[in-house]
Amino acid sequence: MRPSPAGGTLSFEHRGQQFTLAFDMEAIARFEETTDLSIFEAVQGLGTGRPPKLSVLGALLQSALAAHHPEVTRADAMAMMVNPEVQALFADGLTGAMPQSGDAGEDGETPPVNPPAKGRARGAGRTG
Asked: What is the largest CA-CA distance in the chain?
């Protein structure tokens, strides 16, 4: 993974208050648990003219803020999204947090990037 600036955190000011985004594995896991979407499902439309739903972006921003600002709600995060500085930092942080083709893991091996399977219903193939 390419690290985000400042070691995985990005800071910004919104309405006179300082905030810190942390785009790390915990933020991604929090987002996936909250939305029941994989990070890949959530961002697959970026750059194709089909951006994710606003509710998805708000949940992702809230997840990135939660480590340093657990009091921030999704509604608060969505209100922050109208700030152009927040939009730019959010995009930079998200891009830096996503595994890129050719990125090597700690062992020097390139981890597989597994986009969601197309045409398979959620939970298909599960038994129990």
From this structure: 52
Compute the distance between CA of residue 53 and CA of residue 61 in angstroms, rounded to an integer: 13
Q: Are strands 9-14 and 17-22 parallel, antiparallel or unpaired?
A: antiparallel
Residue with tokens 């398979």: 120
pLDDT digits (tens, 9 = 90+) for 51-106: 788 888 899 999 999 999 999 999 999 999 888 888 888 888 777 766 555 544 45
User: In 3-state terms, what secondary structure has residue 67?
Assistant: coil
The DSSP line for 58-113 is: HHHHHHHHTTT-TT--HHHHHHHTTSHHHHHHHHHHHHHHS--TT---TTSPPPP-
Average pLDDT, the chain: 76
Cα-based angle 40, 8, 57 (whole degrees, multiple of 5): 40
C-alpha 102 chain-centroid distance: 20
Full-model pTM = 0.68
